[in-house]
Amino acid sequence: MGSSPLPQRLQNALICRDALQQAQIYFAPVRHHSPACSYALRQLITQIKPTHILIEAPASFSEKLEELLNNKTEPPIAILCQTDLQVDEVVFQKNEEYSEEYKEDDKTNSPSHQITRSVFYPFCSYSPEWQAMQLAKQYNAKIQFIDLPWAEQVTQEFTSLQSKSLLSETYLKHSQYITQLAKKLHCRDHDEVWEHLFELRNFTDLADWQTFFEDTFIWCAMARLDYDSSSLEAEGSSQREQHMLTAIGRLKKSTPDAKIVVVTGGFHTLALFEGLWQNKLLLPKRTDITRFNRQQKSGDRDRTWLIRYSFDRLDALNGYTAGMNSPAYYQKSWQSMLAYEQNSNQPQTTQCYRKTQLIDFLSIITDKLREKQNCSDAIGFIPLKSAIEQACLLAELRGHYGPGRYDLLDGIQSAFIKGSIHDVRSDFWQIVYRSLSGNQLGQIPNDIASPPLVNEVYSTLKKYRFKLDDTLPKTTHIDIYRNPEHRQRSRFLHLLAFLDVGFANRLDGPNYQYGTRLTIMFEDWQYLWTPMVEARLIELSEQGTQLEQIAIQKLQQSIEQLTEDGMAQSCLCAVKGVIQAALMGLQTYFSQLLVKLSSFLEVDSNLLSLVDCGHRLLYLWQGRDFLALNVSSTLLALLAKVPKQAFFLLDTLKQSDTEQQQENLKTLLLFRNLINNLPDKLDAKKLKQDFYLNLHRLQPLLSEAPLIRGAIDSIAYLDSQISQSEFDHKIKMAFELGSQYEQASSYFMGIMQCAPELIIHSSQLLTSLDELLANWKQDQFIEILPDLRLAFTQLTPKQNAIIAEKISKKYSAEKEDMSIEQYRFSEEELQKTLSLELSISQYIHQQQLQDWFKQ
User: Fold this and answer.
1) Under 8 Å CB-to-CB from 65, ≥6 apart: which residues?
2) Sequence-separated (6 or more) residues with CB below 8 Å from residue 305
3) pLDDT exceeding 70 applies to what percent of the chain?
4) Is the separation of the CB atoms in 150 and 61 below 8 Å?
5) Under 8 Å CB-to-CB from 456, ≥6 apart: which residues?
6) How far apart are CA 240 and CA 155, in angstroms?
7) What whole-number distance in Å separates Cα of residue 475 and Cα of residue 524?
8) How many CB atoms lie within 10 A of CB 378?
9) In this structure, what are the phi and psi dihedrals at residue 578, rounded to the nearest 5 degrees?
10) DSSP string, 478-518
11) Please, what sign has the CA dihedral across residues 738, 739, 741, 743?
């Protein structure tokens, strides 16, 4: 890998390796999901023909060997492993500084509950671990998984409760050695360094497994030197490596003639070389054996399943943190290697195979881009030919045996993108990467066990007669009101949707969260059962075995978050959870949420939150029969509580800020709408009277909020709380504020936004506005003109015509004078027009709006 001398530690490790090979222990330091490593491993196993193949995977996976070796199992597949931990167990192991006294107190007083930790161990056809198992089957070698059981590994990592992969390459990704090597080789990241140094070797060089695995060992060992022993022990690597050392030593002691091949991630190989040879392969110490047996026994706590996987989930670009990305691309690389191996008598060159692969993928990408782009932007033959040439020339320049993945991407960028790379639409690169990622799905035997949650959901969907036997999207029409079984189907679909399972999307039906289409008697859902649904259910499996319980946990977490956030707008957030529980049919927990909602109502200090909460409770009341809610009295009590609590917050409507007045007006109208639609059982008439009494109490505080004053006066008139004469008097008083034209116009806007038809029915309103306009100066009129125009947009064309007719009669205007199109202008009218245009232009410059008109 270079002319620089190796560190002494690595030189010594290579001496250990040679000695171990003399003892018939052969190591294959691999990168996970690497075709090059798999090809070299095939040559190693074919040449050595080992009696035992040891693989870095949890020992508890051994029970899956029969399923893994089943002829019906086709990658990509994965082993899902789960183990249960007590919460206090995690806390105590994570916090070593706790005193024994504190631990005892915590155990006594804190409730202990069980959590599930999950892990995935994926395989694709070109995974070295998968190839090792298939060749072991071919040569009748015994397979042994030698890593710590997952139940033991999970106690080393407490910071995350999320599912993860057991093939993590975090250390390699963040190695300073590899980072500096990437800079020296002018590579973008550690993936390009790896491809440059290993994946793009000549196939004949890959077959030289001794040299290849020496190079991969040095690559990984140099990265390992960046980390000290304490960090490796804290992360759990040291404990895992000790377990693997003991497993290898025990096997060699019990079967001295065993010919062993050990397949591990290259990061661990240095520690295994050193650990095995430092004691001349003597049997591990008794304490090591005792610990090893205890750790093996802990594997009984692990539960394992073989599941289907897919290339898009395997791809590093989609969040997978271990091994090679772009699975479809490297699957093709693997197939090229196998074709080369099978045609050894008349082989093509490595470059030919890789150029064919390049052309195949560029053709696929080009076709998909053409489907998305306009005909004028479609990629033609010339750009395609140019991309092929660019990739091949780049490969030659970089010293590759044929173009690789990065050569392909650079060729696309050079030949397909016109102009700046920053101008490329985001879906361009999505299409490219998805083409390289692929969507191949694995297969597993039909008669093997699945995780309980997957089985439960699948059987429930079958019971409700959903069609799950193919991958075509289907639509179901659910009679939610008249058919009890259909209501159960609806609740189950709402449950799956709430947990983001990805099985179904609602297309139509009543929406009780927002109060839309509540009279619709049917729901339409589009659904599709895919491996991604299974994968999501498996992810949820770490939280429990019952969907209802998982949903309740999610709702509980949202309620707890409200408390942590100070419960701002808490009742609105809480009522959303209440409605969600009702839609999912969680009747028992629904009742508990109503009790919590009552307490949130008492502390919510946001008027809009309270009013919005009231509306949603009203939706629940309207749908109580469909939702089978047996809590009518509780719902009524909450509905009655909302306006009473909101009355205390009406003072917030006095805010004078213009934007805030607009928001407050919307809240006021929502509040009025709620009051007008309350059930008769609540003595809605009395609540309506209280509503207007509180608004009347508020009037003296609204001197700086004219928009709200106008709104209150108009809705009071509409709801017969004030007479026509009282309303006219209020209008007259508002418009008699004299020079405060902003106040008057804002008051007018409040009326028009609530009841624009009043300008037709109230002669006082139109007369007052007319008198006000007549007294305004020109600059005042220009300033307020945008607001007036906005106010009159509330009217229909017919209403505008009625007003125009009233004005024309008042001023005895002829029909021609009212026409928008005028053809005769006097000189005086022309001068007035020019003067007005000049005033408007000056105002535009004064307000620095000239650039705005250019947009």
Assistant:
1) 133, 143
2) 79, 80, 448, 449, 450, 451, 538
3) 87
4) no
5) 545, 546, 547
6) 12
7) 7
8) 13
9) -60, -50
10) EETTT-HHHHHHHHHHHHHHHTT--SEEEEES-BTTTTBST
11) negative
Residue 818 to residue 704: CA distance in whole angstroms? 37
Tell me the mean pLDDT in the region 664-686: 93
Q: Which range has highest mean pLDDT (307-321, 450-464, 793-807, 812-826)?
A: 450-464
Q: Report the alpha-carbon distance of residue 249 to residue 258 in Å, rounded.
A: 11
Residue 720 burial by Cβ neighbours in a 10 Å radius (0-12, 13-18, 19+)? exposed
Identify the CA nearest to 535 among candidates 322, 305, 311, 308. Answer: 308
**Pairwise CA distance, residues 23 & 256, whole Å:** 9
What pLDDT, on the 0 to 100 scale, is given for residue 87? 55
Between 181-185, 465-469, 474-478, 811-815, the lowest mean confidence (pLDDT) is in 811-815
Confidence (pLDDT) at 479: 93
Judged against a pLDDT cut of 70, whether residue 155 lies above it is answered with yes
The residue type at 390:
Q
Nearest to 576 by CA among 631, 498, 636, 524: 498
Closest CA to 45 of 23, 30, 60, 28: 28
User: CA–CA separation, 691 vs 282, rounded Å?
Assistant: 89
Higher pLDDT, 457 or 529: 457
In the chain, what is the straight-line distance between the N-terminal and C-terminal CA atoms, in Å? 59
State pLDDT tens for residues 560-608: 887 776 655 578 888 999 999 999 999 888 888 898 898 889 888 899 9
User: In one letter, which amino acid is 531?
Assistant: P
Q: Are 496 and 506 in contact (CB under 8 A)?
A: no
Q: Which class for 415: exposed (0-12), middle (13-18), buried (19 or more C-beta within 10 A)?
A: buried
User: What residue type is assigned to position 341 of the chain?
Assistant: E
What is the side-by-side strand order in the sheet with 303-308? Answer: 164-165, 114-123, 77-86, 303-308
What sign does the CA torsion over 367, 368, 373, 379 have?
A: negative
The pLDDT score that the predictor gives to residue 418 is 78
Q: How far is C-alpha 555 from the chain's CA centre? A: 18
Say if CB 265 and CB 167 are below 8 A apart: yes
Let me know: does 272 contact 241? Beta carbons within 8 Å.
yes
Beta carbons within 10 angstroms of residue 855's beta carbon: 4
At 353-370, the pLDDT tens digits run 999 999 999 999 998 888
pLDDT band at 740 (very low <50, low <70, confident <90, very high): low
Could you report the per-residue pLDDT of 380-417, keeping only the tens digit for each? 889 899 999 999 999 999 999 999 999 999 999 999 88
Cis peptide before 383 (omega within 30 of 0): no
Question: Where do the DSSP E strands lie in 99-152?
Answer: 114-123, 142-147
pLDDT score for 481:
87
Task: Supply the pLDDT for residue 461.
Answer: 95
Residue 522 has phi, psi (to 5 degrees) of -135, 155
Q: Give the closest residue to 10 by CA, choosing from 235, 216, 253.
A: 216
User: In this structure, which amino acid lies at residue 311?
Assistant: F
Q: Is the peptide bond between 76 and the residue preceding it cis, with omega within 30 degrees of 0?
A: yes
Give one word for 326, left, alpha or beta, with left for phi > 0 and alpha for psi -120 to 50.
Answer: left
Mean pLDDT of 37-45: 97
CA distance 396 to 407: 10
Identity of residue 832: K
Q: Which has the closest alpha carbon to 748: 790, 719, 780?
A: 790
Residue 420 token pair? 């700046």
What are the structural domain ranges in the chain?
8-87+113-308, 327-437, 467-545, 552-648, 828-855
Which residues, in sequence order, are bridge partners of residue 527? 474, 504
For helices 209-224 and 176-184, the axis angle rounded to 10 degrees is 120
Residues making up the chain, counted from first to last: 855
Residues near 627 by beta carbon (within 8 Å), at least 6 away in sequence = 512, 582, 583, 620
The whole-angstrom separation of Cα 644 and Cα 650 is 11
